[in-house]
Write a structure and sequence with these properties.
The protein is of the alpha/beta class and 389 residues long. The chain folds into two domains: 4-11 and 258-380, Alpha-Beta Complex (Aspartate Aminotransferase, domain 1), CATH 3.90.1150; 16-252, Aspartate Aminotransferase, domain 2, CATH 3.40.640.10. 42% of the residues lie in helices and 13% in strands. The strands form three sheets. The protein has a seven-stranded mixed β-sheet with strand order 2-8-7-6-5-3-4, sandwiched between helices. The chain is globular. The protein binds pyridoxal-5'-phosphate.
């Protein structure tokens, strides 16, 4: 059966060039990067090259990039590390209502430990307004964290403006840029962020590797304690092969950024156009002005997204209702809720994300299946409505 993967925001396949560079680090180059003999230093050189590649992609200095076990770890590090290091200054953190759970659940945990967390609202397009940040700032605020690109509706936030506001008040600024990396240009110096989180598996690298950009001088405690790896900022023997893979994926992302954005967004736009042409009563959520190039979040009125997911799965088409993390629960997406979308519409919403291996034929097949499935589900639901079910 044909398989169509349209969930690139959940994860991406590892590119062949990436895997090829990783493989020797599992076998002949297996040394511990902390070992001083040649075998260890060979592994250390692989890690150093990867650090340079990730740093280059985001215009950071090489010594400002720290590898972690995932994007979630970098997000946790920002929350726990900054509130710990700056506890004498205050106990207030500002973030937004549409963050990834790695941020939201870190915030919830901090709340139980006596730290107050303010969640900024977003408008109906999913955008944070700088005035709202300005209003939320207090003398005891130590951290502002706003994601660069939202993972459900793809909205890009005005990070440069928001970081400038935080800095005007002497507050550390963090951004979760996991969805942004490789999908929008990122220049940490131009954006003016102090901390930024990244993950390898969203950019055609392996799972289980992330990175934190940490501007020199940022007041943040260590999160993982132990050996002196990562310039004594993050303990634990390096995931050498994974880090090398992340580095190669970052290099490819930098080389392909323009063509990736162009190709992926034109496929996404084609998909939206075909869906609108073939299926009545659909709404595209978010905004087309400043959006993740591969993201199409669409509401199919009068039916359940879960039912669409199950029937598309039977056709070999893989999509998501909300983020992978929320799709296991039936609670309506916190992101679509924050956009002010009514709950019955949220239940009929699907996130399609296209990527580098998506073809036009994949999308034609998807629209064909989707048209039949939506028609079928709406017939059932109208029959049910007539029977008063
Ligand atoms: C995927 C994702 C994360 C988590 O990254 P992991 O490497 O899977 O832990 C964090 N934030 C956003 C916006 C994401 O999309």
């Amino acid at each position: 059966m044909r398989q169509v993967y349209l969930d690139y925001s959940a994860t991406t396949p590892v590119k062949k060039e990436v895997l090829d560079e990783m493989l020797p680090y599992f076998s002949e180059k297996f040394g511990n990067p902390s070992s001083l003999y040649d075998l260890g230093q060979e592994a250390a050189a692989g890690v150093a090259q990867a650090r340079g590649r990730v740093a280059h992609l985001i215009n950071a200095n090489t010594n400002e990039v720290f590898f972690t076990s995932c994007g979630s770890e970098a997000d946790n590090w920002a929350f726990f590390g900054v509130t710990d290091a700056q506890s004498a200054k205050g106990k207030h953190v500002i973030t937004t209502a549409i963050e990834h759970h790695a941020i939201l659940h870190s915030g919830e945990y901090l709340s139980k430990r006596g730290i107050e967390v303010t969640y900024l609202p977003v408008d109906h397009e999913g955008r944070v307004h700088p005035e709202d940040l300005e209003k939320a700032i207090r003398p005891d605020t130590v951290l502002v964290s706003v994601m660069l690109v939202n993972n459900e509706v793809g909205t890009v936030q005005p990070i440069k403006e928001l970081a400038a506001i935080a800095h005007k008040h002497g507050i550390t600024f963090h951004s979760d840029a996991v969805q942004g990396l490789g999908n929008v240009p990122i220049d940490v110096k131009d954006l003016g962020v102090d901390l930024m989180s990244f993950s390898s598996h969203k950019i055609y690298g392996p799972k289980g590797v992330g990175a934190m950009y940490m501007k020199k001088g940022t007041k943040i405690s260590n999160y993982l304690h132990g050996g002196a790896q990562e310039s004594a900022r993050r303990a634990g023997t390096e995931n050498t092969a994974g880090i090398v893979g992340f580095g190669k994926a970052a290099e490819l992302a930098e080389q392909n950024l323009e063509s990736h954005i162009k190709n992926v967004s034109s496929l996404r736009d084609y998909f939206i156009e075909q869906v609108k042409k073939n299926i009545p009563d659909v709404i595209v959520n978010g905004t087309m002005d400043g959006r993740h190039p591969g993201n199409a979040n669409i509401t199919f009125k009068y039916i359940e997204g879960e039912s669409i997911l199950i029937l598309l799965n039977e056709k070999g088409i893989y999509i998501s209702t909300g983020s992978a993390c929320s799709s296991k629960s039936l609670a309506p997406s916190h992101v679509l809720t924050a956009l002010g979308i009514p709950v019955e519409m949220i239940h009929g919403s699907i996130r399609f994300t296209v990527g580098d291996f998506t073809t036009k034929e994949d999308l034609d097949y998807t629209v064909e299946c989707l048209t039949d499935i939506v028609k079928h589900l709406r017939e059932i639901s109208s029959v049910n409505a007539e029977k008063g079910w």
